[in-house]
Amino acid sequence: DFTMTLYLRHYWRDERLSFPSTTNKSMTFDGRLVKKIWVPDVFFVHSKRSFTHDTTTDNIMLRVFPDGHVLYSMRITVTAMCNMDFSRFPLDSQTCSLELESYAYTDEDLMLYWKNGNESLKTDEKISLSQFLIQKFHTTSRLAFYSSTGWYNRLYINFTLRRHIFFFLLQTYFPATLMVMLSWVSFWIDHRAVPARVSLGITTVLTMSTIITGVNASMPRVSYIKAVDIYLWVSFVFVFLSVLEYAAVNYLTTVQERKERKLREGFPCTCGISHSKTMMLDGNYSESDANSLAGYTKNQMVPEEEKQEKMVVHLAMSNESNSSRKRGLKGHVGLRIIQNTHAIDKYSRLIFPGTYIFFNLIYWSVFS
Asked: Where are the transmembrane segments (predicted)?
């Protein structure tokens, strides 16, 4: 719906209202004379509500010229329907029209036309809407046919509205993009930090659901897909895939660790290396602890029932100097840190941002 307040002015000539005058250029009357003379029975097609202003008196003016020309003006507020297409919302432009037509007189009895074409329509240059930018006004006219009554002249006031996008950028697009980028942070978090990655994924999914619900709550219930729906749902899919990505990483890591555990159980602890001492580290020992435990065997350190609960790293410690043992320990610890990042996380750091940027390029080139 749209509501418009306008001054509707009719011009016609009625010789019965002509009068001889040498001093008066015209005579002006109020609405009381309108009920006693003939006036066009113009009504607004497809209007839902309309009224003539009556404060402090009826806003109607009748001006009669000596040759019988009549100017009939009234101030009206009308609410009419506009067939809008929201398939490109909120990057859309809408064209609405206000239609005027005689109710009783066909085109054989009454001809309606714009007095000066597009110049007949004059608007206030200060008109501004909170959600739309008025691009242009123009007038047209054509015949309308009714099967039971005949052909009628119909006048159109057409205006094009372009929606302001800045509000939706701040309230919809920008938050959705930030949520997608926030979901990518989990790719840089250690896959063993289960609470951190799961809570981050669930939070972004719930936030995207809230954004989608808020946008749809303020929109008409339409049966087709809008442009904003495409962007939000694709963003939601990206966030959801980041959660599934961690599920895949966690599952594959568990399978890999299970295979490694079976391989360790199938070989002796010394791994076939003679004249060396074995040591077990679970990742929580410092370098000094490692040096102090270098002379102990596996059976002296860990009971049999705790074997399956620790990540075991076997280091072959020969009778080398302390400096060489330190360098070897640092090398093994560095290798273990590198292995903490799963291959899927490495690929996701590139695939997810690259795909989302490609989607944005296509989206804004199509709808903008």
From this structure: 165-186, 198-218, 230-252, 350-367
Cα separation, 231 vs 267, in Å, equals 55
Q: Which residues pair with 65 in a beta bridge?
A: none
On whether the pTM is more than 0.90, the answer is no
CATH fold of 2-163, please?
Acetylcholine Binding Protein; Chain: A, (2.70.170)
Domain ranges, ordered by start, for the chain: 2-163, 167-262+351-367
Q: 174-183 and 194-217 helices cross at what angle (nearest 10)?
A: 160
Report the alpha-carbon distance of residue 48 to residue 79 in Å, rounded: 6
Other beta carbons within 10 Å of 53: 14
Condensed to tens digits (0 to 9), the pLDDT of residues 167-190 reads: 999 999 999 999 999 999 999 988
pLDDT at 323 over 80: no
* CA nearest neighbour of 345 among 243, 245, 256: 245
Q: In terms of Cα–Cα distance, which of 183, 115, 169 is closest to 352?
A: 183
Beta-bridge partners for 62: 29, 72
Residue 155 has pLDDT above 80, yes or no: yes
Helices (H), the chain: 166-168, 174-183, 194-217, 227-265, 287-292, 298-301, 322-339, 343-367
Which residue's structure tokens are 């043992």? Answer: 325
